[in-house]
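<discrete_fold_record>
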Amino acid sequence: MSGPLHTLAQAIRSGATTASAAAREQLARIDATEAAIGAWQTLDREHVLRAAAAADRALPAGPLAGVGIGVKDIIATAELPTTAGSPIYAEHRPEVDAACVAHLRARGGYVFGKTVTTPFAYMDPGRTRNPHRPEHTPGGSSSGSAAAVAAGYVLGAIGTQTNGSVIRPAAYCGVVGYKPTVGAIHVRGVHPFSPTFDTVGSFARGVADAALLASALTDDARIPDAVERPRHRLRLAWLARFPWSEPDADSARALAAVVDRIGADAEVIAIAIPPAWGEANALHRCIMLREGFDVLGDLQARERARLTPALNAALDEGRAIAVDAYRHACVERERAIAFFTGWLDEFDAVLAPAAPGVAPRSLATTGDPACCTLWSLLGFPAVSIPAAVVDGLPLGLQLAAPQGRDATLLAAALAVEAMLPPAPVPPLAGDRVP
């Protein structure tokens, strides 16, 4: 199976179009609507045109031949600044690319621009707005990456997730977000927050393209570059809610109807998280915030006044977490990985909400990541697929599977995607790139 990203790369390789022609169309779309969306932290028109022209001259043979990709602004790029969403690093220009960007270039792609991230990839919003309704949040922390794909500015973008920073904005913006198994894509050159959880992921319009992009960022065989629907009847678990998160009633009804539709073509079995793991989210918070302080504590000591309120509060909470409590949480995490791996072993994937509801009507929040926390804690791969529309906004369905089962998860996600209606096109997107 293939999608528009694959199709464009193939067209450039065959000479049916050029990277320069595609770039000019994308820049025209950005010129028309970017002021209302704010997806880009750094976008240099001359850089885009030079990179596209260089691709046309070199005729790259890789899977991303001549395709420009949005890159979240906590990921190092030698040609463009990397600000981490903070004025502290407003002029920072790394000497070398992050590992994933180096892979991107080696596979024939180029960095179209740097997409907005919330400051240091935490919870305080950036300037990006949701392309479906600009008064609603696009989610975070990979706000700009999700919005740029939803608006049709690029056919793929790179993000990161520590808690819900790929899955949630993908769900809110009505695109596919893929968070691979932790460690499958190298994080060298990505500004850290919590090394146990930090994971590079991808955004695209469809599952096949999200997989293609992610596979181009690594040599890890766990991420396939091509995904096919499984030949067997899917066996899926349905986890309607997490103990620490109460879904919005309208969204819960809409997802239940989606799952009923999926059940016509797949075996779907309802499950519930056992009470013993009813507070697994607390393990994630303990590890994440203690590591966040370990990573950013010295910076906070120097620059507290220039850090955002939520980040300062998080680092203060992390400072107060005792080392013994952190170590205990790490041990419990290993127990949780063993338990949930066995618990889900019989399924191709588990279905769950990607967020408690649609994107909130607010630019003062990035929404609630609680539906992503368990899979981030466990390092399990996860995918968000646009599944329904509630009150005119996209609603995401999340699929997850145990570590290392990315190929099985993506195949299941491709099959489920085919059972659902097309994702809604944002009013601000205009005509999409073919």
The first helix runs from residue 4 to 14. The chain is about 40% helix and 15% strand. The CA atoms of residues 235 and 326 lie 36 Å apart. The longest strand covers residues 382-390.
